[in-house]
Amino acid sequence: MSSVLEVRDLSVSFRTEDGSLSAVDRVSLEVGASEVLAIVGESGCGKSVTAMSLAGLLPRSARVDGSVRLDGVELIGADKRTLRSIRGREIAYIFQEPMTSLNPVFTVGSQIGEVLRTHLGASRQAARARSIELLKLVGIPSAERRVDDYPHQLSGGMRQRVMIAMAVACDPKVLIADEPTTALDVTIQAGILDVLRGLRERLGTSIVLITHDLGVVADLADRVAVMYAGRVVETAEVHELFAHPQHPYTTGLLGASPAAGRHADTHRLDEIPGLVPTLSVQPDACTFADRCGQAVDTCTTSQPQLTRSDHGLACWNPVGVS
Amino acid sequence: MSRYLLHRLWQSAVTLILATIVVFAGVRALPGDPALALAGEDRDPESLRAIREQYGLDDSWLVQFWQFVSHAARGDLGQSIRTGEPVNGMIAGALPVTIELSVLAILVAGVIGVGAGVIAAVRRGRPAEWAANALALLGLSVPNFWLGLMAILYLSVALGLFPASGFVPFFTNPVANLHHLVLPAMILGTGLAAVIMRQTRSSMLDALSADYIRTAEAKGLSPRAVIGRHALRNSLIVVVTIVGLQLGALISGAVVTERIFALPGFGKLTVDAVFQRDYPVIQAVVLVTATAYIVINLLVDLLYSVIDPRIRVRGES
């Protein structure tokens, strides 16, 4: 499968008042055509920063190295004009907070139409007509009326559908969904995931799904990359990962998520002790070693590299191997 | 919306009545007797009494107040004690001068203030922001009268670019009219621009850090659309509030600037009336000012709902 999006050795660090802060360390990812890649991990593991860096959306204090290729076109270091012409047209984003991600003073129709007018040069009327089509596509009832609504007149789930309609307006190659369901009720979540699944099937859009919710991953993703402290520690096809997790962090994540029957005896989820470390410099060691139940000496003296295979792993002492 | 408007009009009426009472009592609480001021050198009791009788100053306050209110309600603001001229005419002569000056000054202030505020917010932490901040500080701290005098000295007297004083009505000669008002409007406007600039900057910074700005950037919009449309529109509420307050203040209080440029405006009328204890004129001036404030506030509130649809719905419900 040829990849639409190819990320090689992407590193991001931030200049702060307390010095440099490493957020992402040599991350490599590939997303194939109409594939859904999920990036999972705890808060602060660098998954959102990775997503934002793909189209150059990070603030000026960020230093981004490595390579991001979209259909062979290099995006890291590309000039602003090129990036602008790609954003919204070839790479589109959906964010976590539908409540605040839409501009409160413009109608949803004008906000969707803006993308069409900017990238496709659509006329006002054409943009409006297409906006109504898009609202229908994402399952908004009476779209002809809703197109003139302001964001505050819509529920959270409806707003997220509007965000999706806006994102797919120009039929982008890659859709980056950063925690698209986190702020929503469970029943609404299912509807949003259905919309995303439908888009992938109908439009063939590749999706990068950023989430900490393994239920969402199981529901939608084809492949998964597990991130910890700025690094990808394990990556595999979704069924393979859930069936044979090899990194102690992945097994920890799976153990921490609720599943029917599994925790019935203890009434308590398994937790991973400790917190994701904040790193100024990425150490030459496994960043998970401090929290890992089965760390060996090598883990603190040498950084494990992600193996390049169908089931990639960065661990000196994987689960179920030794 | 119409219910909201009715409610606002009722509020305005109450405000106006209260303002009238306060002014009426306030003027009479001032030390000084208009009869004495009018009589000049001739202070024999007989002529003082005659003057008091002529102007109804010997009536009780209640009677005087009723006279004032009942006449004002019919659009008659009385006669100047000093000159005997109808106050209506005096106001009709002075008000347009001040309104024109105020509107020009607000235009100058708005263009400079909003422009510099946006630049300061967008270029945060860079030389452009420091320059804008420094200019704002200068604008705030340099008194208008000094700036006015310097402008007259250098631009009018030395270079002869603008007339140093005086006024030509707009309908007599629009070009000469503007020529006379450019300098005072600039002087007034630059001071106000500083305030607008500071407020625009801070509300723009708020807006620029909002999630919807990130969305706008992710859509691939140009910086002009992101800043000028998405961020600025959300910052305008603050700007409109400030402009409204300033416009009200200008109409009642461009006194110093009007004095320096010898403009026959409202400020001059007010000051003259106060010095001469010209009760009817003072009362009328305050009444008109209060009305101006109320009208401007109403317009500002209506503008809010045009700018921000969330306010529209709240007003309707």
Automatic annotation (TrEMBL), chain A:
Domain ABC transporter per the UniProt entry, residue ranges: 7-254
Cellular localisation: Cell membrane
Protein origin, superkingdom: Bacteria
An annotated GO BP: peptide transport
NCBIfam families: oligo_HPY
Family under the similarity heading: Belongs to the ABC transporter superfamily.
Annotated protein name in UniProt: ABC transporter ATP-binding protein
Automatic annotation (TrEMBL), chain B:
Compartments (UniProt record): Cell membrane
Domain ABC transmembrane type-1, first and last residues per copy: 95-304
InterPro entries cross-referenced by the UniProt entry: BPD_transp_1_N (IPR045621), MetI-like (IPR000515), MetI-like_sf (IPR035906)
SUPFAM superfamilies the record matches: MetI-like
GO CC annotation terms, alphabetical: plasma membrane
Stretches that traverse the bilayer: 101-122, 134-157, 177-197, 236-261, 281-304
GO molecular function: dipeptide transmembrane transporter activity
Keywords recorded for this protein, A-Z: Cell membrane, Membrane, Transmembrane, Transmembrane helix, Transport
Its membrane topology: Multi-pass membrane protein
Pfam family, any one: BPD_transp_1_N
PROSITE patterns: ABC_TM1
Gene3D superfamilies: MetI-like
Family from the record: Belongs to the binding-protein-dependent transport system permease family.
Name the UniProt record assigns to this protein: ABC transporter permease
Organism: Kribbella albertanoniae
